[in-house]
């Protein structure tokens, strides 16, 4: 019977049960590499059929190796994270995580103090130690689900202690440079790795200084299969199809009939007949419950639990035992592990220890891809797979040995012993990548793609067709030739221009960064042509809006006129929105004249066949207009107001200031010799009425509308007037109840941010920034992991800061920098782009150009002045 719960398998009964041999004290790095050693992953190798490859592996079975002639040179340890809480909240109707169980799992989690102490030994970084993590780690489940328990941390620390004891001789004198650590970007794997290091390498726990060890995390998923939960469900469900049963590995006998197993699960767990049984979710929840003695639903037997776990184990081994499926989901992981092994073989100087914090699916995929005979085993929490690399000094040959959980060796398929030559491992890796050949694109289709690329009709990413490890495979000369094609992107904090270009290309080949690392992708320099274009587009838009408003108003007035001219029936009156008389007929011209001063002027001029003077027009107007003008308190007499209106109607606004359809020609003709006025167009339309009413609003706005810019000053004027009218008592400071006036600190004088640059870091970035004044620069705050970009130095039209600034050797003179650029750079370095004037002054005081003799009061005044100037600039 296969017992996956304990991690043991009877299929290994014929395998010699030898414990991993102690590392040789002569663990030296190999000086030379055998010239026949091939690349671990070579895209140029000829394809090998699985059948032919299997036969060749059997024929090349290695002869027994004398272990005394070998010395251990490297250890690669893949390990699953420690014990965790369940991820799935509910499976079926009866397996549900209720509030009581949630509280139980919360009590199992480590304290916050314990979690913080884990980070003391190793810092989480990107793929390079000087880079920050690409993104925050995944939680792996909604709290408290999917979280590492305290028992899980203890498991990993104990695992580290056992490994240190086993490899005691090999780890003597080990340094931080001898250790390479990788983890998937999940919290439970990262914390498991840190806990393992506490037991394995306790000498690296620092007291005060920064950790010397680094846990690398990547932006792309590589150390775990890339299948989604839905893809897992679809692929595993295929194995229930009886028509393909003969193509699958045999199901362990003790599992029995799978239909009977499904029926028992549906009855106990409460899964409907038409619902799919997800054995993966079921297994992970039951394993967590079993580990912490949480009862199974409906008194489910341990025998059924074992069958569920073993069947799901068979599903995973069947999935990743298929070369095509394994390559589809885990080719990046195998490529990365193969490259790690290849570096040990090829490089004369290399580290001793590689730690890979992974998941259960990673280990199963690794076993199957490397053709390791382990049986129907599911890796339990904290399970390990250790790859030991040995060297034979006399021949410079390398050998590989793999053990599982430190209990037994795992042989390679087709090999008699557990110690296998690296040449055989290399063939296994080649077979993995050559067994799945992608369909070649027809020549006609290729030609079409190239044509489409040339025409620019579709965007094509040429790098997407290359293997992700292309950059690593390139020679230094090839890398240099590619880097020469990139623009000079200096100014990355912590990078030289050459390193920045190399990092950009590395990320491009990984499929991460398609912007060539350009920090100016969203940055816009001041541009007079663009500003003029925006203003022109705004003017066109405003003209279109005026035309739309005019046509809309005309349409409303037209339909209103038609509506009022038609006699409505009694039924229509009842349905009308307003209670209108059925025979209502109003003269719209007369109504408009009663409501519009300009229409009244037009009717007065049209009432005479000859031109009229201002006095004659005044007499023809209704007296109500004169009273209204006086009531509006216009600062002129009604006669002067009328003359101004006539002059306004006789002088249209020039082109470019208004829409031509509204005000392109005068309405009134003015004879300056006789000082008379006449209406030009005697046949007016409804659109003319609308235009006149709009012009009346423009004409009367200076008299009737208030200046919006004066609104904030009105309260101050009212207070000043009230103070002027009051007599102020003389205050005697000798009086007992006299109090000094209280002043409040303004918000601009308070600091908003508590975390700033150190002076050394600030001035170090200053030095880099002002060495390349014509290029944009990216500032980086390592404490907050915040970065911002500022443009090239602004040209200075004046320089009044001689008393505040000082000369800096090897940099620009102060008169070429000025306090304006220093203030603008301080603005760019505000944490999260927010802060007060006091924050900006604080940063300016750290500048490398600021004179030590400058007083803070003078700096505050100067910074305030520069902020006012910068606020009036476009895109500072």
- Cα end-to-end separation: 74 Å
How would you classify the quaternary structure? single chain
The average pLDDT value, as a whole number, equals 75
Query: Which descriptor suits the 3D outline?
Result: elongated
**How many extended strands?**
15
Q: Please identify the top-level CATH class of the largest domain.
A: Alpha Beta
Q: CATH fold name of the largest domain, please?
A: Rossmann fold
Rg, nearest Å = 42 Å
Helical percentage: 40-55%
- Helical/strand content category: alpha/beta
User: What CATH architecture of the largest domain would you give?
Assistant: 3-Layer(aba) Sandwich
Indicate how many domains the architecture comprises: 5
GO molecular function, one term: phosphatase activity
Domain Nuclear factor related to kappa-B-binding protein second winged helix: 759-871
Protein name: Histidine acid phosphatase
Region (Disordered): 1-62
Q: Please, could you describe this protein's structure?
A:
- With 876 residues, the chain is of the alpha/beta class.
- The protein has 5 domains: 10-224 and 324-434, Rossmann fold (3-Layer(aba) Sandwich), CATH 3.40.50.1240; 446-510, no CATH class; 528-575; 588-704, no CATH class; 747-871, no CATH class.
- Strands 1, 4, 5, 6, 7, 8, 9, 10 and 11 form a 9-stranded mixed beta sheet that branches. It has a two-stranded antiparallel ribbon with strand order 2-3.
- A hairpin with a 4-residue loop joins strand 14 (777-781) and strand 15.
- The longest helix is centred in the middle third of the chain and has 38 residues, at 528-565.
